Amino acid sequence: MEQTQKADVIVTEGVTKVYAADGIPVNALNGIDLTIQSGEFTALVGPSGSGKTTFLNIISGLDSPTEGKVWLAGKVLSEMSGNELSDFRRDNIGFIFQAYNLIPVLSVEENVEYIMLLAGVPKAERHERVIAMLKAVGLEGVADRQPTQLSGGQQQRVAIARAMVSEPTIILADEPTANLDSKTGADLLEMMRRLNAETGMTFIFSTHDPMVMEGARRLITLRDGQIDSDEIK
Ligand SMILES: Nc1ncnc2c1ncn2[C@@H]1O[C@H](COP(=O)(O)OP(=O)(O)OP(=O)(O)O)[C@@H](O)[C@H]1O
User: Fold this and answer.
1) Which of 115, 189, 226, 227 is most buried by a 10 A CB count?
2) For residues 117, 123, 127 and 133, what is the CA-based torsion angle, rounded to 10 degrees?
3) Residue 102 lies in domain
């Protein structure tokens, strides 16, 4: 009988973060032990200041923990050199930001193909993958537009296409619906969930939005830098 084994894409062990703001220590994370497996669609929730952004920054290697270890796709982030880490991040993580962060002087197509360009994917293949990805996010026919000619919801779809097109190990999204009205945010989340089901790509996102939480398959609640609850729905 065939066995499907889920890989651990992120493992954290004792992740602690202390910021030194004006000499006063702030304990943002207090020993987080967590495993995220491939194919998860997981929301990170909790009150403002509970450590969500800090945790996302640490598991993506944008910031380093004061103590503890993070494995991403089997590699310990703190054991990589600066260049190795940035290549590893480019190949393994797709980021989606609250403010979309598209490059305004580039067309939609150029925004979506950018990471593939850096990774040396040939032009014809890049074009084919961008067009297929734009179709998957419901944005056919906008490849030549500038991001500013699109609505906020459409811009965030472009950002999702950009994050997913190079098939990273994990998609990380910090408050992806925070700048959208609740209907647009709910539609966007439904689309992310469909893409997760169709591609098996792993998603982890932070949110304050109860409608977005509803759509998650696993809900991890942080409180004062610790895991308060971890619920599979
Ligand atoms: N660069 C920093 N320097 C000092 N303290 C920081 C820094 N970044 C975050 N903090 C503090 O760390 C704690 C966790 O912040 P974090 O931004 O991770 O929380 P959050 O759950 O993402 O909050 P929000 O929901 O408001 O975005 C807070 O007390 C915050 O004030």
Assistant:
1) 189
2) -40
3) 40-53+79-232
